[in-house]
Amino acid sequence: MTFEILALVMTVACCALGIRFVFFGGSVLKEWGLESTAGALILFRRMGLMYLGLALIFFLERTAGPSEIRSAVCLIMGGTAIVLAGLGWFEFLARRVSARIFRSVVAEAVLGAAFIWVWWVG
Fold first, then answer.
1. Helix (H, G, I), strand (E, B) or coil at 81
2. Hey, how many other C-beta atoms are within 10 angstroms of the C-beta on 16?
3. How many Å apart are CA 72 and CA 44, to the nearest integer?
4. For FRET with 108, which of 28, 41, 52, 98 sits at 20 to 30 Å CA-CA?
5. SS3 helix, strand, coil % of the chain, rounded to 5?
6. For residue 1, what pLDDT is reported?
7. CA 41 to CA 57: how far, in whole Å?
8. pLDDT tens digits for range 39-65
9. What is the sign of the dihedral through the CA atoms of 5, 9, 11 and 12?
10. Are 77 and 57 in contact (CB under 8 A)?
11. What torsion do the CA atoms of 95, 97, 99, 102 make, to the nearest 10 degrees?
């Protein structure tokens, strides 16, 4: 997998997450077994905009050659995705979310591993 392919996959994934969090945050909360409150929806809309910003970053940098900044992006996004997967697992074990969070956990773990792999191979 090249960085360009991974960047395009992340562009699409971040756009999908951003749109879902901004416009359909209540369905995500319900899926995870959480109550849809005004505060949670405000946070989801704000987080959705962050995902849309990341999508733009990945789209604009998709053809970047190997560099220190590309390596940093791969390491930071890989580490972040793996930590998010761990947090999802932790919240499930603490019985704060339903088992449906594992769809997110698996996706985050796979994306984290892909970013680390792209960093590793340069």
1. helix
2. 12
3. 26
4. 41
5. 85, 0, 15
6. 60
7. 24
8. 999 999 999 999 899 899 889 888 888
9. positive
10. no
11. -120
Structure tokens at 53: 């910003």
CA 68/CA 53 separation, integer angstroms: 21
Please give the pLDDT value at position 98.
Answer: 93
Query: How many angstroms separate the CA atoms of 32 and 35, rounded?
Result: 9
Look at residue 113 in the predicted model and tell me its pLDDT.
92
| Per-block mean pLDDT, blocks of 10 residues, the chain (122 long) | 84 92 94 94 94 90 87 91 95 94 91 89 81
Residues 6+ apart with CB under 8 A from 10: 54, 55, 58, 77, 111
CB burial of residue 1 (10 Å; 0-12, 13-18, 19+):
exposed
**Half-sphere exposure at residue 5, Cβ-oriented, CA atoms within 13 angstroms:** 6
